[in-house]
Amino acid sequence: MPHTILNPQVQQFIWDNTDADVTKLALQKNPFPDVEWTDILNQIAARQKAKDKLPTWFKTQNVIYPSKISVEQTSSEITAKYKASLVSGESLIDLTGGFGVDDFYFAKTVSKVAHCEMNEQLSQIVANNISTMGIANIECHTGDSLDTLTRLDKQWDWIYIDPSRRSDIKGKVFMLKDCLPNVPKLLDTYFKYSNNILIKTAPLLDISAGLSELHSVKDIYIVALNNEVKELLWNLEKGFEGSPTLHAVNLTKDDEPEVFTTPIEDEPDTVYSLPLHYLYEPNSAVMKSGAFNAVGKQFGLYKLHKHTQLYTSDSLTDFPGRRFIIQEIVPYSKPEMKKHAEGKKMNITVRNFPISVEELRKKWKIKDGGDTYAFFTTDKDNNKLMLICSKA
Q1: How confident is the model at residue 268, as a pLDDT?
Q2: What UniProt keywords are attached to this protein's entry (predicted)?
Q3: Based on the domain organization, do 337 and 351 belong to the same domain?
């Protein structure tokens, strides 16, 4: 595919149809008989997916894309850039190279990067793109990554692995041993070639399950982008036996990331309170961490209820999440709801409350949107409340 898809006229056609409806375009006659129409359509569809996720690729001419699904599954540039901030040194080998987005950013912080990819066509695509982008310190290796690791037979400053879930594994339980490569099985082998291993997993993986399968885990990074958890990063250091540190990181396109760090250990005692002047809602990375008591203690906040992951205080403080001013505390009852909620326009959140957002909207005819935020929740005395808030 690469040599035909790079025809200048084909490339111009792909760029000219960046905003086209690919399903409608597919009904047209192929203007380039020497090139597969499906290949051209795939390039357009994948490029559309790359527009926001991979702006560097999107803006670069003569870049070749794999399938649209591969682009959907790859790291975004923002998360890849963060990942690269965690590594340093002379050499890194990526055992599951894929489309090479992570390696593009690793190459900015590490002197030499090896990209390993089993799929020969994908390896060729990455090699083309590396050359097109003028990157000199990434080397592509096609074939089984373990074979490449043993053949090269050298010490690396870092090994990076993004194992993929095997398609023949059914059910909702997600274990690392069910992925390719089987990292738990190969971990001791990997440690023969590097003292530092960085593993990326999907947020679906339970943290305690990951810890049960791995050893030498020094840090776990829960990485969210715009408050949506995208990946877990596991930093393993050969011989490390201490308690791992959790880092809940929420990245945005413009601002400094929200970072909450705490050791994984017994959760500290927490202090509860009825709602005070301010309300705090943790971001998705903190929620995934499960360190609900630790985040309250670190920021000097009170929890509303053991099972209500909302916090309150009398004075405003920094917090890894959203902050609100509580305008009214409304007991959840029919007369109060008729007075304060029925027919109103507000953004609804439920936390530890028996009725869903959809049911509340329908029951009280609440419209979505506006500048008012209503939290339906339970306080420390098990009273059901609606907290009417504005953003702090």
Answers
A1: 74
A2: Methyltransferase, Transferase
A3: yes
